Structure formats: C-alpha cells, structure tokens
Prior knowledge:
Elements: H1 6-9, H2 13-16, H3 19-28, H4 31-42, E1 45-46, H5 47-53, H6 59-71, E2 75-80, E3 83-88, H7 91-117
Antiparallel strand pairs: 1-3, 2-3
Helix pairs in contact: 3-6
Amino acid sequence: MRKGSDADRGAGSARSEDPDDDRVFKALASPVRRRMLDVLKESERTTGRLCEAFGELDRTTVLQHLRVLERAGLVVGTKVGRERRLALAPMPIRRIYRRWIAEYMDAAVDLLEDLGAE
C-alpha cells in the first residue's frame, strides 16, 4: 500500500477534510446563525429586515454572524439598488446531509437490522 492512501487513513477520512464542510459545521454550531437560517428559509430579507428580526442583538453582531453564514455558502447576498437582499442557499446543507447524516443513518439502520437478525 502507498503511504497516505485511503486504505491507510480509513476510507472516509479523505472526504472528511473538506474545508467547505468545516465552514458549514462552524456556521451551524451557533444557535443565532441557525435561527437566521430559519428566518431566511421562510423568505428572503434585506439586511435591515434581518437586523430587525434579531432586535436583541446589535447590528454589528448580526452582520458578523451573517458573514460567517456567507463564507460557508449558506446565505447569498444580492445588491438591489441601495438594499442588500439575503437568501438561503440550501446546497451546502444538502451536501452535509448526503455526506454525513444519510451515510451514518444508513450504517445505523444496517446495524439495527443485523442485531435484529441475530
């Protein structure tokens, strides 16, 4: 075997080192950012309207959280005149679901089926 091959590292470890996934997990780690995604899931908002929805936070804090979401690719901002419209970008979440959740869910179901067969 070659040093550094998938067999040496474990089959899934090469995929787990995706920096995009790390940014998404970091973004989703914050309850405030998850709430922002919930708000944007309902409908797109201007930056001002998003700040209003999080009145308990100052504007700077909302914008900092928003930057993390944008870097992770979870939110897309589009300039329309003087306003900036924000929308949910669901593809990174779908990628995380397919790579992590569905894969591990299938393994757990297989394990339960194996235990039931014994």
